[in-house]
Amino acid sequence: MNIIDQRLFKDDTLKNKQITTDTVGDGKLIEGDTINALTKIDDDVVNVGVTSPPYNKQEKHKGWLVKNVVYDVYKDALPEPEYQQNQVNVLDEIYRTTVPGGSFFYNHKIRWNRGNMYHPMDWLRKTKWTVKQEIVWDRMIAGNIRGWRFWQVEERIYWLYKPIGDKLIGKELRSCDAKLTSIWRGVPEDGRKNPHPAPFPIWLPARVIISILEPDTQGTVLDPYIGSGTTAVAAKLLGHKYIGIDRSDAYLEMATDRLDNAQAEMSKIREEQGLHHVQGSFKDRKTKGKHVGKYRNTDDETNIIQPSLLER
């Protein structure tokens, strides 16, 4: 790694809580262990985060498909209780770095091993976060004609929320974001175009950032397993700061190259932005006295034109 680059740091060169709102600049990439690197971030710096950690798939022991998911400097094969506790520790440290009212989107999947099912909620309920929503990512991959279970084509994205005081609900989503529903459909990143073993597509962090951060304000976006830099690129192209962590200098080199050439991926961001649109929001329709819900004055139902889904 070229440490001369002002975006790049090693975790052992930083003091605890050295990355602050004032020092993050346009963005920082930190090479090191996730927990150690997170201690270098001050309290209440991050506005929103998104990540997909290693899934503890036990690498080659899980079949022909999973054997290709082998990381550069990390062996994805811990005893399950140790893995789950590590994830609790990581998520609680992220909670500390996140501002009250901030969110973190955690991409994981249900796994099976020797007849036992491991569900992300097994450890998410042990963290400090409020679990606000479970989103199903339909990856739209081809099914298989054999197996011990119906072919798993989905992963989960958990919207984790850091409440302000005892207010667990948080603010309402804009209509143009809420209409995207709790099932997100989109294929994974093409492995032939991205050498990282498990990258997610750029629309995914872009959707999170667009939906959660106000369009006219600049926030800080965290990905504690940044890999090839997808989240950082999405944050940069959407006008936000980023903090990315990875223990592999090879992956951070990929991230740096992508950040330097981020404009080449702007068309994918524009495509996602185009989905966040409605003809009339709830607030707009209410202000104009138009239909905003199921119940309405039915005195002259014969003349009522039902609004389309997007207009609602």
Topology readout:
Blueprint: E1 8-10, E2 27-31, H1 34-38, E3 46-51, H2 80-97, E4 98-108, E5 111-113, E6 116-118, H3 121-124, E7 130-138, E8 154-161, H4 175-178, E9 183-185, H5 203-212, E10 220-223, H6 230-237, E11 241-246, H7 249-260, H8 266-273, H9 282-287
Parallel strand pairs: 1-2, 2-11, 3-4, 3-10, 7-9, 10-11
Antiparallel strand pairs: 4-8, 5-6, 7-8
Helix pairs in contact: 5-6, 5-8
Short structural summary:
With 312 residues, the protein is of the alpha/beta class. It has helices spanning 34-38, 80-97, 121-124, 175-178, 203-212, 230-237, 249-260, 266-273, 282-287, and strands spanning 8-10, 27-31, 46-51, 98-108, 111-113, 116-118, 130-138, 154-161, 183-185, 220-223, 241-246. It has a single domain, classed as Vaccinia Virus protein VP39 (Rossmann fold).
